[in-house]
Amino acid sequence: MNIQLFLDTLPIMLKGMVGIFAVTGVLVCAILVLRSISKKRDEGNNA
């Protein structure tokens, strides 16, 4: 196994993992915002 090649690819893997977590975070935030908007709309209709 070429250790130097493996160490050279670690920054690329790190960027990919950060990208995956960033997109997941954006999706979670969007879902939370949409749920809060939906909840407020439902409470307004029931009153």
Describe how the helices and strands are arranged.
Elements: H1 3-46
What distinguishing features does this structure have?
0% strand, 47 residues, mainly alpha
Write a compact overview of the structure shown:
This protein is mainly alpha-helical and 47 residues long. The protein has one helix and no strands. The radius of gyration is 21 Å and the shape is rod-shaped.
Which H/E pattern describes the elements?
H
Report the sheet with the most strands, covering strand number, pairing sense and barrel closure.
none
Number of strands: 0
Q: Based on CA inertia axes, which overall geometry fits?
A: rod-shaped
SS summary, helix count: 1
Q: Indicate the percent of residues in helices.
A: over 70%
| Poorly predicted residue ranges | none
Structural class: mainly alpha
Average pLDDT, rounded to a whole number, is 92
**Proportion of beta-strand residues:** under 5%
Distance between the termini: 67 Å
- Give Rg in angstroms: 21 Å
